[in-house]
Description:
Layout (H helix, E strand, L loop, with lengths): L1 H9 L22 H10 L6 E11 L4 E11 L3 E7 L7 E5 L3 E6 L4 E6 H8 L5 H9 L12 E5 L2 E5 L3 H9 L8 E6 L6 E8 L4 E13 L2 E12 L3 E13 L14 E3 L1
Parallel strand pairs: 6-14
Antiparallel strand pairs: 1-2, 1-13, 2-3, 3-4, 4-5, 5-6, 7-8, 8-9, 9-10, 10-11, 11-12, 12-13
Amino acid sequence: MNRCLLLIGLTLGLASCRSSKITEPVFTKAPKAQILIDSVLNSQFEFEWLSAKISGKYKDAIQSFSFKGNMKIKKDSLIWISISPGLGLELGRVLMDKDSIRFMNRFEKTYYKSSYHDLSAKVQSPLSFQRIQALLLGNPFDEFTAKKYYADIVNQLFTLSSLSAKQIKKVERNRRKSNEEIYWAEINPMNSKILSQQYKNYYLDRTLAVEYQDFESHETFDFAESIDLSILTDQEVNLSLSYSKIHFNKVQKFPFNVPKSYEIIH
């Protein structure tokens, strides 16, 4: 129970509204990789504070259920999530800072604290505070530290990856597959927003993939109000998440007081 709730707390095609009278340009060639990276970074959603209502569905090999809740973020500092089963009663809270994740289970009256290293091992995917924050906001969760990146165009969408298509095919055929996280993203040429992104490790046979939909304009940026997350390892975990009543740059509080009667889970 704690694991699936923690996953929910973490998380956790383009539907932009445009006039049909506007003729979109036809792209025949992708820009150079570094130019595309710079454009993606410049289009990141910038803020200091964020709050939103959330709703979603969780599914793994054992269980499937819907939930509602609230989310608050202080940029590069804190992520706070409260989860309810839909009946108005709080099921649990998650508080993430740069070093740790804390989870309070209201139903079982337990408290749990984990590191990102331990969490990554449990969900079998590379996670950190910055990656989780980027995942929730539709910003790139890759830090673009690979030696080289490759840009391409597929079905009028730009793609960006840490290996070329030829190199990826070579990795797929190689029996002794490389133990590296291969980054791949699909990008809207019109506004440089990420439509989907993933990390894939062929050696471990695992994939962390995210898709973004329902883009709406907030202040000067387009923001994805729907997210679909999949973690594919020896088992599959799926999480869909939708935002509503979104507010930016309003100072938020992050209440997280654990009652003394709660059991501490180690």
